[in-house]
Amino acid sequence: ANEANIRVMLNFYYCREKAGKWADMDLAGLEQGIYDFTYDSMMAFKEEDIRISMAQIGCGLSKGIFRPEGEAGEYANLTSFASSGIRACRSADPGVPLMLHLSDGCDNKMCREWFDNYIDSGEDFEYIGLSYECDEENTPRKLEHNLNDIALRFSKELVVLPAMGVKEEDAEDLLDRIKRVVGYSGAGIFFKQRSLFDSHGNPTEITNTLKAF
Question: What is the pTM of this model?
Fold first, then answer.
């Protein structure tokens, strides 16, 4: 990816439930463990001269991480966990922009509540990432409304991460909606690899759409 000048996002997909070495850790142990794991991982990439364009701190933080301490809605603990990851990234490579990622990108009430609680006492970051799975309930219009609302409310750049199975026409529509986000705060979109390349490694129509965009 580096040789092809492709931007790489490193996703710290912290576990939902405490398991393995994390299972017996208390709250303080979890905070330190998250810091150490994140810092060591960032340094491993840095030492191999692999350029990281963005680091994602947690995947679907709104569903919780390291439960039960980090259960969904336990905002004080979730803020501490995410902040530990952010501090570790800043220490390892302060030039890498950071993203906090939530599930359910159409749920405006949840997004407002989560970041209202986090921003009061959490470490600073650059991007808000939102998952998106288009269905009858989660429509592109709902996503666009949420993007515009939280862009105004939190003054962060926004990234959309679609689920698998996005059609070419849906990708074009998503890109257009992101481009229209108020204040030009729609930073872009990350598609999963299997949306971009088929089983033989050939680019899909979505890849061609991205190139054209």
Answer: 0.91
